[in-house]
Structures are given as C-alpha cells and as structure tokens.
Design goal:
With 195 residues, the protein is an all-alpha fold. The chain has nine helices and no strands. The model has no long low-confidence stretch (mean pLDDT 78).
C-alpha cells in the first residue's frame, strides 16, 4: 500500500515538474524543473525495482544531458534571440492544429498497447535467474530494438550539429580604426564616429 501511495506522489510530482519545465519564462528555472522531473522519474524506477534504470536516469539525464543543456543555454545569447522578430508567426496556428493530433495519436497507442514483455521471452523469472534487469535491457536494446536505438542516436547527433550551427557567431566586418601621427589633431567628426 505504501508503494502505491509513493508511486502516485512521485508521479504527480513528475507531472508538476514537467509542467513547470514548459511554462517557465526563465530557461534556467525550466532546467531546474526538468532536473526535478528526472529525479522523480528515477524514484519511480526505484519503486518498481528497476535499479539500473534509476541510476541511468540520474547519471545520464539529470547529470550529463542537463549539464549539456545548461552549457548550450549559457553559450547561446537567449536575450538577443527573444528580442529578435519571429519570422514565422503562423507557427502558433500550426501548434493549435498539431497538438490535438499528437494527443489523439498518443491516446490511440496507449489504448491499443498490450504491455506484455513476455512476448519477447523476457519474464521476471528469467531476469531473476540472470541476476537482474540489466541483462534484459541489453537484450531488448541491442537485439529487438536496435534500429530505433540507432535512429535515436542519429537524431541526437543532428540536434547537436544544429546547436553548434545556431551558436556560431558571425564574423564582424573589418573596420579600419583611424590612427593619428605625432602632432596631428583628430577631427571632431572622427572622434564622434569612433565613440
């Protein structure tokens, strides 16, 4: 009974953290909310005795991925980006159309899923005999789900290349700075232009 109550509490906290992540105007506050969400998801993994997933969640997501996000946020000049005029004002209308479609797709997958892991031959008894669920995760990831795993890695590489391209600074044009020799008086217009 206590596990069910903790599961509901951690699930509710994870949802609150996820909502805070997407509703904060300050990006750093959003990142802190995302850390809070990741930690609550790791606690849910601990409750379901998926210890390897819990540690991977904390080390990989709450650790490495969030540090990467933080460096990207610090590297990009987000204040300048917020002040820029948005080129595609029609995007908000597209979001209004695509959001219900994505939600309907999610509900359809949720309703039609079988949720049985025994179809792949991985049963709780087999996991117990192999000393934990790490073996089952490895078999599922590198045998049954190899193509989606590789596609996800390609997507992450493409996102990283996009972030590097966005962060690249444009070179400023070369401007000749006037110099004056000894005894020469600078013109007032030149001083004004230099300031």
């Amino acid at each position: 009974m206590v596990e069910k109550i903790l599961f509901i509490v951690f699930g509710a906290l994870a949802i609150v953290g996820a909502l805070a992540t997407i509703t904060r105007k300050n990006i750093i506050h959003g990142l802190i909310s995302l850390i809070f969400t990741f930690i609550n998801v790791a606690l849910i993994y601990l409750l379901t005795q998926a210890y390897f997933l819990a540690m991977a969640q904390i080390l990989v997501y709450a650790g490495a991925i969030l540090v990467l996000f933080t460096f990207v946020v610090m590297f990009l000049n987000l204040r300048e980006f917020q002040e820029m005029e948005q080129y595609y004002p029609w995007q908000k209308y597209l979001v209004v159309i695509l959001t219900p479609l994505a939600l309907a797709e999610f509900i359809a997958v949720l309703v039609t899923a079988t949720w049985l892991s025994t179809r792949q031959g991985i049963t709780p008894e087999l996991l117990e005999s192999m000393n934990g669920n790490t073996w089952g995760i490895g078999v599922s990831l590198f045998e049954n789900m190899l193509l989606p795993f590789e596609l996800a890695s390609l997507l992450l590489v493409a996102a990283m290349v996009g972030a590097v391209i966005m962060a690249r600074k444009e070179k400023s044009p070369d401007v000749a700075i006037p110099t004056w020799g000894p005894g020469e008086e600078p013109h007032p217009d030149a001083l004004e232009q230099e300031v």
